[in-house]
Write a structure and sequence with these properties.
The protein is of the alpha/beta class. The strands form five sheets. The chain has a four-stranded mixed sheet with strand order 2-4-3-9. The longest helix has 27 residues, at 339-365.
Length: 771
């Protein structure tokens, strides 16, 4: 056992370090809050696993201890969190987002932890900054609430919080002269199943760092440079490029045995190749920032191609054929299935016959032809792969601004060098009509300067189209707007979309034909300079907003960026199984777990076949978010205070026999399920409380198991606490459990627990009186 205070001192002195194969800090604020609540209440928060070694092992940041030191294998997220909050700064080995743990406050009255919220906390002395508490003493805060009737109780609670540094962590150590990085990583993955497992890329990078500790930092500096230029990539992705250049292989394991000098050389070459591609994609295609750069996994193939022929992007005709392949590979989701297998096929094709081999291979996989059809523009979200194609056409084909009449190039626009996505038929016009579900059709999008977009506002196309054509003849046609005024009427909106899809498809075929033939007919190609794309989410339909917010939340939680509107094909037959709203082909964290699919239109997908192929399929954002949050809660220490336990914990012998209603009372179970969903909807409608985790539990484990887990948790759920704050305990699961209709579903002990909780929190409604 080791006291937390001693562990923090060891981290401070450099005795406890972090091995280089550990990824950075990935926890979010909810996990931080749950950990602090658990340790404050004395709940178990898991043990630590250390590797005691005196060997020269790569550690994060290149920090070295003196003599024998301990490498933290399991417990990085917990110890980083506690060190940062208690010491007021992250440890030296920290790499991540400090916002995850900054400004945590504790309420001495409710004993709740929450991050700083000025409107809620300003002027309320009951909220104490946790880091400031550890930097001073509980008695320093006493004068602020000394006149309160519960002042002594508040001081006692602050003392209890300050004493968490005496918490004992169970600590296991592995030692031995035969221990090396490979063996230790294997041990780490075995014991860390509840936490963040290492991906295949992490393992390969660990081996590289063992040979040259500065490798990870060098790679991060390259990523930071691209981030500053508007492109966001991951360590795994960069390693994929370096592996392609070094070995021409898709598997990271091919790097085993490579010297540090050879890998460093391959890494620098891959960075040069990526720079060359980004210059070509920006200058020739107008794909000049993260939001519109598609087909990330096609880029390692281009890195491989450039390693074989460094001049492949220097000749304009050859460059255009490379870009032709890249666009089609991205549009058709070339790497959305078995990524490594497809990459290896393309690496080999590039080696055998260069870009012509890549094009031939892609054509064969698409049935012998590469073409663009009007139907390709039928998607209804910005996540579609054809959304970047629309932006690309706008940039390269001389599309003109409706307000100024200028072509949408940075060199032409001058100070107006930012574009905004514009709804041609505004949402306000379509919202209440029969076409509201098609407001976010790609064919209803175009790009304008912000000034023009604001001036047009919510005008009817019949009104502003005529004005545009009068001021700037040809501007409408340059944006592929059908010129028949009859199609500008809202009643003809579906016909307008179909006509514009035809025009967009024709423009795409012409441009891609120019690329395949090796340049524009004149032999001259334009070079574009970057234009900032500004998107306004205010006009999005609720479904698009929900999906985007889910993806942003998952990325904050350490998940990878998914493919959106991704076609998933059966590997045996080639049949399309789904067009998923979001798809993580390598798992939510790269290389970890099974592929994950978010498919909201499950009736239009072959969900059963996806599951047979070992995909994790979710049919609602809340179910997916609930799944991720529960994984994080388990990683936070196996029983955070605000989370239900993973398994119900019977409190007495009376609970050992749980009623089995499933055997003969299906109608009652269905009624209870409906009641649970109504409680969720009423909480949303009447109390303004969204409960995504609750909804996710309903989807994943069912209504009855959800209720039992919440009842048997050692502390009230977040949902219960939030509804109590809103004065609506009648909307809790506890209140529903006490409804006489559902008595056969629960034990007397469970009913007693539900009643006791409600009464403790002051609820005296009819439900609490049962029994």
């Amino acid at each position: 056992m080791a006291k937390l205070s001693m562990l923090l001192d060891q981290i401070e002195s450099g005795t406890v370090l972090l091995p280089a194969f550990q990824r950075g800090y990935v926890w979010n604020r909810e996990q931080v809050r749950n950990l602090m609540s658990s340790i404050y209440q004395g709940h178990p928060v898991g043990g630590l696993l250390m590797w005691e070694t005196a060997t020269d092992v790569a550690v994060t940041g290149g920090i070295r201890g003196n003599g024998t030191h301990l490498l933290l294998l399991d417990g990085q997220q917990r110890m980083t969190t506690l060190y940062a909050i208690i010491r007021g700064r992250p440890p030296a080995f920290f790499h991540g987002d400090e916002k995850a743990f900054n400004d945590l406050y504790f309420n001495v009255d409710t004993e709740k932890f929450q991050f700083y919220a000025p409107t809620k906390m300003n002027g309320d002395d009951r909220w104490i900054n946790v880091s400031e508490l550890f930097a001073s003493s509980p008695v320093d805060f006493y004068p602020a609430f000394a006149d309160h009737p519960d002042a002594k109780l508040y001081l006692q609670r602050l003392n209890q919080l300050s004493q968490i540094t005496k918490h004992d962590f169970h600590q296991e150590e592995i030692t031995g002269a035969d221990m090396n990085v490979d063996k230790v990583v294997e041990i780490f993955n075995t014991v860390n199943s509840g936490g963040t497992k290492l991906s295949k890329g992490d393992l390969a990078l660990a081996q590289r760092c063992a040979k040259r500790p500065e490798t990870r930092q060098d790679m991060r500096e390259y990523l930071d440079r691209w981030e500053g230029a508007g492109f966001s990539f991951s360590l795994d992705w960069l390693l994929r490029n370096a592996t392609a250049v070094a070995m021409g292989r898709a598997l990271f394991s091919s790097l085993e045995g490579m010297s540090a000098a050879d890998f460093d050389s391959a890494l620098r070459k891959s960075v040069d190749h990526i720079d060359a591609f980004l210059d070509a994609a920006s200058g020739r295609l107008g794909l000049d920032h993260h939001q519109v750069l598609m087909g990330r996994y096609a880029i390692p193939v281009i890195s491989r191609l450039l390693s074989l022929d460094p001049s492949a992007l220097q000749n304009s005709a050859h460059r255009d054929r490379v870009l032709f392949w890249y666009i089609h590979a991205a549009l058709r989701g070339r790497f959305s299935g078995s990524t490594e297998t497809t990459l290896q096929v393309d690496y080999d094709a590039a080696k055998t016959n260069g870009v012509d081999g890549l094009i031939d291979t892609l054509e064969r996989s698409r049935g012998g032809t590469l073409d663009i059809h009007a139907d390709d523009f039928e998607a209804f979200t910005r996540g579609s792969r054809f959304y970047p194609l629309l932006y690309m056409l706008t940039r390269v084909k001389g599309a003109r601004d409706f307000g100024s009449g200028l072509e949408l190039k940075a060199e032409s626009l001058g100070k107006l060098t930012s574009l905004e996505m514009h709804h041609i038929f505004p949402k306000a016009l379509l919202d209440k009509g029969p076409h509201s579900g098609q407001v976010n059709a790609i064919a209803n999008f175009c790009f304008l300067t912000q000034k023009s977009n604001l001036e047009i506002g919510k005008k009817h196309p019949q009104e502003y189209f005529a004005e545009v054509e009068e001021r700037h003849p040809g501007a409408l046609a340059s944006q592929w707007i059908p010129t028949d005024p009859d199609l500008w009427r809202v009643e003809r909106y579906p016909d307008f979309l179909q006509a514009r899809r035809e025009l967009l498809a024709q423009a795409a075929r012409e441009f891609l034909g120019e690329l395949r033939d090796g340049g524009a007919p004149s032999g001259q190609t334009q070079e574009l300079t970057p234009v900032q794309l500004v998107t306004d989410a205010a006009d999005d339909d609720p479904r698009a907003v929900q999906i985007r917010e889910l993806i942003e939340e998952l990325q904050r939680n350490g998940c990878a960026e998914p493919l959106t509107d991704a076609g998933i094909s059966d590997p045996d037959t080639g049949r399309e199984l789904a067009v998923a709203e979001a798809f993580w082909p390598d798992g939510l964290q790269p290389g970890q777990g099974r592929p994950v699919v978010l498919e909201l239109d499950s009736d239009q997908a072959d969900v059963q076949r996806l599951k047979e192929l070992d995909y994790d399929v979710f049919t609602s954002p809340d179910a997916l978010l609930g799944f991720v949050n529960r994984q994080h809660a388990e990683a936070a220490g196996g029983g955070a205070a605000n989370e239900p336990d993973a398994q119900p914990r019977p409190q007495d012998a009376a609970e050992a026999s749980v009623p089995d209603a499933s055997a003969g009372d299906g109608a009652l179970l269905r009624e209870f399920g409906s009641a649970m969903r109504r409680v969720y909807q009423r909480a949303l409608d009447e109390a303004g409380y969204r409960a995504p985790r609750f909804l996710g539990m309903l989807a994943d484990i069912g209504p009855l198991e959800t209720a039992r887990r919440l009842l048997n948790a050692p502390a009230v759920s977040d949902c219960f606490a939030e509804l109590w704050e809103r004065g609506r305990l009648d909307l809790t699961v506890e209140a529903l459990v006490l409804d006489e209709r559902f008595a056969p579903l629960f034990t007397d002990a469970e009913a007693t627990r539900a009643r006791t909780r409600l009464e403790q929190f002051g609820y005296t409604g009819r439900a609490a009186a049962r029994g």
